[in-house]
Design brief:
Blueprint (H helix, E strand, L loop, with lengths): L3 H25 L2 H16 L5 E11 L2 E7 L10 E6 L4 E6 L11 E7 L5 E6 L2 E10 L3 E9 L5 E9 L1
Antiparallel strand pairs: 1-2, 1-9, 3-4, 4-5, 5-6, 6-7, 7-8, 8-9
Length: about 160
């Protein structure tokens, strides 16, 4: 009888540890944990290699209603197109355009990059500017970066750069 509290205490500790283990299993197998794992993997996907631009989608929205979307890649000036974008795991990036505005070979532009905590925005910082772009798609082989700005006529123009490896 004197050892009964000791046995009850040991049983309580064993049950507590067993329930914690089950809770960890349910958390690790939950959809939220899969989403969290995919968010954590996104920087690795971005830094997996050099990206080259394969599309330039332009959308115009007027009063929350999309008016038109077109791929302007074939008509875009070479100074706008990205020949290579490399995002390093250490948070630096290097971007090389097709040509400079004066027709001379382009020089790489370097800076730093980071994803926000939700991994749905890419923030690039260059000595002259900082730009935030929405990451609308990021897979092993595809990257879509969107940037929106208001037009003079009240419409919103969204430019989406499409990249692949």
């Amino acid at each position: 009888m004197k050892k009964m509290p000791l046995f009850l205490g040991a049983a309580a500790v064993a049950l507590t540890l067993a329930s914690c283990e089950k809770e960890l299993e349910s958390i690790n197998g939950s959809p939220q944990s899969a989403t969290a794992a995919s968010v954590l993997a996104r920087p690795d996907l971005l830094a997996a290699g050099a990206w080259h631009q394969t599309g330039l989608l332009v959308s115009v929205v007027d009063k929350e209603k999309q008016m038109a979307t077109s791929d302007q890649f074939a008509q875009a000036k070479p100074t706008v197109l990205v020949k290579s974008a490399v995002y390093q795991a250490n948070g630096t990036y290097s971007l090389l355009r097709e040509t400079r505005w004066d027709g001379q070979p382009a020089q790489p532009v370097s800076g730093t990059w980071r994803l926000n905590t939700a991994a749905d925005s890419l923030i690039v910082t260059h000595p002259d500017y900082t730009q935030r772009m929405a990451v609308t798609e990021l897979t092993e082989g595809s990257l879509h970066l969107a940037y929106s700005e208001p037009a003079a006529d009240g419409k919103v123009v969204t430019t989406t750069s499409v990249f692949s490896h």
